[in-house]
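G., before I forget:
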Amino acid sequence: MNQTVETTGKKIFETPLYPYRRSADQEPGARAHHPVVVAGAGPIGLAAAIDLAQMDVPVVVLDDNDKVSWGSRAICFAKRPLEILDRLGCGDPMVDKGVVWNIGKVFFDDRQVYQFDLLPEKGHKRPAFINLQQYYFEQYLVERVRELQAEGKPIELRGGNKVVSVTPKDKGVALSVDTPDGPYTMDSDWLIACDGAGSPIRAMMGLDFVGRVFEDNFLIADVVMDADFPTERWFWFDPPFNRGQSALLHKQPDNVWRIDLQLGWNIDKDEEKKPENVIPRLKAMLGDDVKFELEWVSIYTFQCRRMEKFRHGHVIFAGDAAHQVSPFGARGANSGLQDTDNLCWKLKLVMDGLAPESLLESYDVERIHGADENILNSSRSTDFITPKSDVSRAFRDAALDLSERFEFARPLVNSGRLSVPCVYDGSPLNGPDALEGGPARTRPGATCPDARLGTDFLLDRLGGEFQLLAIDAEVPDSVEDGGIAANAIRVSAADDPSGDLAARYLGDARSAVYLIRPDQHVAARWPSFDEAAVKAAIRQATGRA
Amino acid sequence: MTRLITKPNIAAPDDFYADLLAVHEGLAKAESDALNARLILILANHIGDRETLAEALDAAKPKK
């Protein structure tokens, strides 16, 4: 029996990928001024920096660490974030490495009560989900940063640089940064704070972060094992090996398995984390004859909370720094990537003087809407997994019990409602929905669903800038308003014989013209081209209406 | 109340009442509670209509 805890070979998260190097900003007498500084080189900070650099906005990323995330942490990445990564030029390595899964099994007590298939819709380039260790995720983002640097894009990644003070100014922010060579200062027009749930910048600025604390502890372990468990998500309620609690088993690449065991509230965390206590728990779950090595163990509690506002003048918060949810439903990193997807194009327009600063207020409106949806879903999952009263446990157990025999009870079982992008209904940026009979899923505010176009995919042709998608409709090559252009993409329902394109974008209509934002959300739609209407919708979508 | 039927709607009410008690016979309190929870979910699914269910939840609340 293998009881080793140490794994052999150096892991990627033990290797400094962006070690500290002295920068010119630290020379005596220097006082650097940057257009954008990103605090935090986690998944969200790196995504923000890549997005900006691709648009030629100079950006400096500061992180007090110099390695990718230690241990796996976030593992489950949904379709929409993968599509965002495609736009950022690094979707392929993620999906190539990641584990695709569709089957989930739900166990109650000592038996399987049912299984489900995500039944991914056809006609999408990306799968519904992949599982991938956060350290690979960050590694591929760092590699993309290096690629952009090689192309001469203005992006800098400074490890060993810790932001120790933030002073908001009228048109920017002054920062003090600590390094192994001592502190230095800089000014920045904009600061994007992606420094995690414990955000030091949020604390330095004395900003609120209120919400609900869940009184529970979870043991999270990534184990390396050669086991013939299938590539499925297994979730247990009240299993014999963890009585009264829940458990999760999920596969990651390299034969690494995520195990999540609920422990309850009154425990000694330091004791529970010791290998001599962790290993018997895992053996009880996996069986005595399964050989495994522990890669990473942690105990976490969680909260569901968000900042009242994400934007504070020229300091803008994104990802866990702005909002925090329970892990059930994979809504942390996934929603953070949607934050920066929403923010960066707006910031670029404001910096270029093409849109008023008030456009950034729509970042708050749209992403707070997203955060609230995630917090609601995540809180409901948690209430199901951890019933807070005798009667809520009775209903929880009743739903699980019935789910074995009756299909109707299965939608009531909630082990996490998996992340889907939110629709920005009611956003001040939305233009008219003038497409009679148009599908609800592509109404203004929604993200564009993918569709196959020959050997190509629709989403690969969208993104980065405003676009005018014409389906069996006449449009000019480009429509411009106030220096902001929307370029035409012309397709025909006949390009997609499967009918997906027509079903997703036409519905009962015969033709359609969509104005699509740089983040691939629908801004407005019509049955045919009307120049004045398109120009008005561009103004609306850029905060100039 | 517009959707929820609040007039008598069960034929042979005494028989139904006896059936309801009979299904709980011999059960411990916890087992009865579990049965009631299952029964509520089964009936709620049969009704399905959210407005009717909302009216039923409201009608069942303790009187102020």
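Chain B has a mean pLDDT of 96. Residues 34 and 52 of chain B are 24 Å apart (CA to CA).

More on Monday.
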